[in-house]
Each structure stands twice: as structure tokens, then as C-alpha cells.
Amino acid sequence: MKNSPLNSAMEGIVTQVISGNQMKVSLTGPNKVVKGENEFNVKLLLAITPTVRPHQELLYGQAALNYSKNILLNQKVKIAYDPQSPTKDKDGNHLCYIYINDDLYQSMLLKKGFGIIGSEQNEKLAKWDHVQSAESEAKDKGIGVWSIDGYVVKDTSFDKKIGAVSTLQGDINAVLNTVDDVKKNGLNESTLNRALDNVLKIFIGK
């Protein structure tokens, strides 16, 4: 992997998956603390997935989230910056590549059709060609986000009208996510309150 960001990667464990392209990574190995931080909020470079935000959810956002959970959650990974990219976005998320078993996760995700490279990405980034090849494969097969006519706009963004998930389905997905969290992490006051809140939204509105 000559000239690869993996050469300077940090080791960690994925402790939470927030969306298809955003997760929390707790650092391990020799560099347990970097710039005063032990746990990074990571946003994937070169991979944009449909949102799963309540009442803004888009098609295949849930599928991307589920795939990332299945592959990454509680797994050992390596994360790496790209020298041609800022290390953080405006929200303080670390912009990184993620490798699992030395495979680039961005390519795995896009090959399934669960995301796109997107409009804010830079062709000069080290793994651009690798990720673009995975995206092209999904596009050619017409799978995932590429299976819906007009959903991907100019290969750079998602059409929110075409991809909108119904409010009811979005709330049901939120409840299912909470149930999944309870199964994995045990029941506590925070997850219980979130589950009740999601159920109430379905029956009595917003």
C-alpha cells in the first residue's frame, strides 16, 4: 500500500454508527490519544449516504446505516486522514478513510449502491480512483440509490422529493433503531426515553 493513507493510520474500535457515513471510533493501539481526543466522531471521506434524520429521511439511508452497523460496529478498524483534505469539517467531525481488515470501507459501501462520492469531494484525494471505481460498478448495475430514476442528481446529490421516506415509515425506522440499540447495549433510562418518544410521535403526531 505504497503512498496510501493507511501507512499513517490510527487503530481504533467503532463504538457507535450514527449513519451510513458517520460513526464514533475509540482509539486503541500506540496512539490512544491524538490532539487531546480519545474518541473521534468520524465522517467518511469520499462517501455521502442518504440522511436518516427524523422527518428528513431519504431512501436507502436506513439501508446504508444498517450495512455500516453490520460491518463496522464493535469492530477493529484503522482510520486515516488524507494529506490533501482538511482533517475536520465545520461540525468538528474528523474526515477520514476507514479500513476494516485493510479493505477501504468507502469502496465497500459505494459498491453496494448505498452512497455516492458527492459534490464536495476532491479528485486529488488519494483514494478517489478506488472509490470512483466502486461507485461506477454500482451505477452500472443500477443497484441501491442508482435503482431509482432521478434520485441521484448529476452524480453529486440526492433529490429530496424523489427520495423522501414517509413520515410514518421514518418514525417506525427510528423505533426499530432504538430497539436495536437496546438489544446491543442494554436498557437504560436514555434509550427507554428515546423509544417512548419515538412511539409517541407515531400515535399522537409531532
Brief description of this entry?
It is built from five helices and eight strands, in the order βββαβββααββαα. With 206 residues, the protein is of the alpha+beta class. The protein folds into two domains: 5-164, OB fold (Dihydrolipoamide Acetyltransferase, E2P), CATH 2.40.50; 166-206.
**Radius of gyration over all CA atoms, rounded:** 17 Å
Helical coverage, percent range: 25-40%
Amount of beta strand: 15-25%
- Annotated CATH topology of the largest domain: OB fold (Dihydrolipoamide Acetyltransferase, E2P)
Describe the structure.
- By secondary structure, this protein is α+β, with helices and mostly antiparallel strands.
- The chain folds into 2 domains: 5-164, OB fold (Dihydrolipoamide Acetyltransferase, E2P) (Beta Barrel); 166-206.
- It is 33% helix and 19% strand.
- The chain contains 5 helices and 8 strands; from the N terminus they run βββαβββααββαα.
- It has helices at 61-72, 105-111, 128-141, 167-185, 189-204, and strands spanning 10-19, 22-27, 39-44, 76-80, 94-100, 103-104, 152-153, 157-158.
- The strands form 2 sheets. A 5-stranded mixed β-barrel has the order 1-2-3-5-4. The protein has a two-stranded antiparallel sheet with strand order 7-8.
- The longest helix has 19 residues, at 167-185.
- The relative contact order is 0.14.
Strand-helix topology:
Elements: E1 10-19, E2 22-27, E3 39-44, H1 61-72, E4 76-80, E5 94-100, E6 103-104, H2 105-111, H3 128-141, E7 152-153, E8 157-158, H4 167-185, H5 189-204
Parallel strand pairs: 3-5
Antiparallel strand pairs: 1-2, 1-4, 2-3, 4-5, 5-6, 7-8
Helix pairs in contact: 2-3, 4-5
